[in-house]
Amino acid sequence: MPVFGPTRAALAAAAARGADILPSLRLVLTAEALTAPPPSRALELNAELDALCAAVRELADCRAGWLYFCPAYAPLPAAVPRALLQGTVLTFLRGVLRSERRAAVRLAAQQGAA
User: What is the C-alpha radius of gyration for the chain, rounded to an integer number of angstroms?
Assistant: First the structure.
């Protein structure tokens, strides 16, 4: 896994000078999530996404009923880094927030998955 410490330090110094670092910070966080090793124990996606969606509903300054979570019928374990899962869902929700439409996060087992 690459080390992003020097990049983070450079971004912190740029932020201290008043520079806009959000685009670069997003790239670093995405790279960190993509290069993170899989967890030693698979995440249970139903529980992870339910908790994430509940937190987003509480924190977002939006109208009631804008975010729905539809869990799978059975628990779905996946060996993915938690930050990658969270980043993916939050990127999706960012687009929904900008469009001011409703969102549904649906979790379903892929047909024919091995």
Answer: 17
CA 53 to mean position of chain CA atoms: 10
Residue 51 has pLDDT above 60, yes or no: yes
Cα 49 to its chain centre, rounded Å, is 9
Q: Can you name the residues that pair with 69 across neighbouring β-strands?
A: 105
Output the pTM of the full model: 0.61
DSSP per residue, 43-84: EEHHHHHHHHHHHHHHHS-S-TT-EEEE--SS--EE---HHH
Structure tokens at 26: 């997003």
User: What are 58-113's pLDDT values in tens digits?
Assistant: 777 666 778 888 888 888 888 888 888 888 888 888 887 777 778 888 887 765 54
Task: Give the per-residue pLDDT at 17.
Answer: 92
Other residues' Cβ atoms within 10 Å of the Cβ of residue 43: 18
**Among 64, 56, 59, which Cα is nearest to 91's?**
56
Tokens, residue 104 = 């549904």
How far is Cα 66 from Cα 61, in angstroms, rounded to an integer? 11
